[in-house]
Structure formats: C-alpha cells, structure tokens
What we know:
Blueprint: E1 8-15, E2 29-30, E3 44-51, H1 62-76, E4 86-93, E5 96-103, E6 110-116, H2 121-124, E7 153-159, E8 163-170, H3 177-193, E9 239-245, H4 247-261, H5 268-284, E10 291-299, E11 317-325, H6 326-331, H7 334-347, H8 350-362, E12 377-382, E13 400-403, E14 412-417, E15 425-431, H9 433-439, H10 443-449
Helix pairs in contact: 1-3, 4-5, 4-7, 5-7, 5-9
Amino acid sequence: MTLQKKVKHISECFVRPQNDLSQDTKQPIYLTPFELPYLNLNYSQKGLLFAKPPPENQDFSITVFLDDLRRSLSATLNHFYPLAARLTTRKEENPPSYVIYIDPKNSPGVKFVHATVDATVSDILAPDVPLVVHSFFDLNDAISHDGHTLPLLSIQVTELTDGIFIGGSVNHILADGTSFWHFMAAWSEIFRSKEKNGDCISRPPILKRWVLEGYSPITSLPFKHHNEFIHRTENPQVKERFFHFSSVAVSKLKAKANEECSMQKISSLQAVSALLWRCVTRVRCQPPNSETVCKFVINNRCRVNPPLSDDCFGNPVDIVKETTTVEDLMSHGLGWAALKMHQVVKNHDDAAVKKWVESWYKNPVVYKLTGLLHPNIVHIGSSPRFDMYGCEFGLGKAVAARSGLANKADGKMTMYPGREGGGSMDVEVCLLPEYMMALESDEEFISALKE
Length: 451
C-alpha cells in the first residue's frame, strides 16, 4: 500500500541569503583533499519526520508554516551562505591548471520544494523503510560534481496526512554529517526565535578550510575535462530496515566488548559496529578464507593538531577500514572485532591524517564509487552522536529521522541517535533481501537487541 504512494510536488522556489554578501564573503572557497576525491559521491540525504498538529488546532496553517520555514532558511543562509552557491571550474592551459571551487558570487540559492503524499506517520515508521521515503528527498541521482549546475542544498517539505517531513539533500563535498546537522540546528534556532534577521546564532559556522602547512589552498587536479574522472553508478536494490538498540542494550554490548578485551576503552559505537560486522558477515555465508572489510567514516576535526572545532563547516572526513578473514572474525568474539576497530580509530591520529593528505597531493585522485565498495563489506556511516532530535520547527520533537536513496548499497549501515536519548541508537541496515531475512533471525543479533 504505502509502497505505491505517489509524492506530488506542489511548488518549488529558490531561497537566497537574506542579506547581500560582503566583498570578503564573495571570495572563492577552494576545496581540499578531504573533499575533491568525492566528486562522484551522491548527495547526502537526511531528514526528520514530525507529527502535524491535529485538525482542531486552528492556530496551525501549512501556508504560514512554509512561509516561516523559507524566511528562517533565508536568515540562516546569511551564516551558511556557501550552501546557496554553486561549484565552478577554472581551467588554464599555461601553466596547466584545473581548479574546482565553491563560488559565492554565483549564488542562485537553496532549492525549496513543497510536496504532498497520501501517507501517514505510522506508514513511515514501519521497520521496513517504505520506498515512498526516497521521494521525500530531491536530487536522488545527483553526484557532487553536479553542483556546478544543481543546487548544493535542496530542502523538500513533504506534507503527510498527519505529519510533515523535512528532508535535506546536501552536496557531500560541501558538508559532512557534522556540518549538515550544524546547519539544521542553526535553522531550527532561527525558526524558533522568530527573529526577522537571525543575526545572532549560538554556533556560527567557521567557513575557512583547513590546509596542510606548506601547501597552497588552491588545488589543481590533473585533468583537462570532467569526463576524465566522472563516473556514475546505479543504486542497487537493497532492503532497508531499522533496528533499535535501547540504552540498556547498548550498555550491555559495550560492557561485553570491554570485558572480552580486558579494558575500558571500547566505545558504544565501536561495540555496536563490531556486532553489525560480525552478524552481517555470518549471514552472508562467505568462504572462511575470504576477506571481510569493515569501513567507517571518521571525523578528522579532532584528529589533527591543533584540533578543529566541530563548527568548522566542510567535509573533513576520511574513510578508515579494518580487514580480516571471515574465519578469524567468526572464531573470535565481539571484543576481538571491537578492539580491531578501536585500534584503527586510535591509529588515525594527526600524523596519519597529514601523511594521507600529503600522499593525495602527490597523486590526486577522484574515487569511483565502485572502488569504495566490496562484495563482503560493512560500511558504517553517520553517527548516533549527532543531535538530530534537537532540531525542532515549532512541531515538537521529531518522531523519527530517515535517509534517502543516495549512497545505499549492500552492507551500508547508517547510525542514528535513539529518539529517547540516553545512549540509545537506531541503525538503518541496508542488505540484499536474502541477507536481511537471515539477519532478522540471527541469534547473536536478535539477542543483542534485547534489554
């Protein structure tokens, strides 16, 4: 039923910063080695589901609500003005140069879409994510390089029968999860303040990009035309399902992992990720001597020295991985897997980050998305530490957080904070249907979900 629901677009417009940009803010924002490799990555899509006030509430008007969203978004873009811009490529022949940057002078604005769908909040909250959720987001097929002509951020507000979904599709080389939820928090803050100009926010973004000492902020790629590095892939058909880990369940997993390691340094996220790696690997029934990989996105802000603030707006992330054989992963316990992940994170320090950046400067590459995949991979993305449920827009606390179609593949795990807080987590698991069916009856996995 819900899978057949159709989203109807009612209107769309572009929202620009409320104030004109100063000369300083019109300067090019050059992309870094943290961002340029991901020009082929799809836009990041995250959103929040809210309950709509009941019909008897005469104070609520969807027209007024949308106007308030657009007004507060415009005021928020005074601070996050790169989101309203577009990418530009500057090519020169003598000497050869190919530079991609964010151009605030070219600022058509953030796309704002109003849509409706004949679906309910309960439809969306089903553990198996209904396909209609993909239609709650714009720019499903866009890759980061498309930001030359497409908006770097598109907001879609979808009106359900008894709810409202606010979904954001953001160019992944412009903002990682930390920066996207920073933007959402600032937008929420301005919306709730009802200030017309939103001049003051509690956490202004730091827009200056981090540059490795001794290197120019302007990076030239070794290409003459984008056809040399652009590569598009089709999203495979996977089943998406949410699993909830209560704070008690998370605490038990963390305690078990640390006890097996005889230490107290394994984090909750590492313990849950280790469980996912083990259980997904088991249900895939791969040969014992085959390789299994666990990759996860890691925030470099706190890794470099001196550390960067979480208010630094951008995409300063890396993908780190741990590799072992199926036999080793299955013959050892949860703590063994968690410890391997802990060590990978621990080793990703200032020296490791700067070594990687230097190596990229010597051999600049743009990744193909297929190169980031693996037939026996578990890929951990997003974070339960993001304050998603702190973003409110006059409708109370969100009922749920959801993601779009982009960047989904077999083995992708998207982490969310649990709505009740307290260290609880929600995990969106993407697997081929036969693997999902097996996971739902995996003894270790089901046992870990219980309090």
